[in-house]
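This part of the workshop introduces the protein records we will be handling. Getting from the letters to the tokens is the skill we practise here. An example says more than a description, so a record of this kind follows:
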Amino acid sequence: MRIGIGYDVHRIVVGRAMVLGGVTFPGDIGLDGHSDADVALHALCDALLGAAALGDLGHHFPPSDERWRGVSSLVLLDAVVRLLAERQWTVGNIDLTIVAERPRIAAQAPEMRSAIAARLGIEVDAVSVKATTNERIGFIGRGEGIAAIAVATIEKSP
């Protein structure tokens, strides 16, 4: 068994969809980034890649590559799962924390868990999605950005 940790952060912008954990939130604010800027899935991808010692998201999907502009981070997660499978790794469990003052995450957490579990090919009860605020401290506390931290376990396939 191996464990990986991932972290990502993106700036909040007006006029772009907010996508977190593969779920689109209502409203007129979103995150700035080359893909859909889903910080939750980016942190998750980095945790999975790190556990398998395969580098990071930017190495596999560089922002200089126009193929990834605006792409759903679920597509990136699918590609990461394929990279793991090619090396006989399967996902054990996921623990994901989103750090944001807004939007509120709790109502969409079950949908995020389901979306992530489906993409990883694991049971929903092996995916934890939770949220916290930054207590109005720093750039996250001022509502300028959102961060996510993920921990993932992987195991060699039988």
Remarks:
- The CA atoms of residues 98 and 157 lie 29 Å apart.
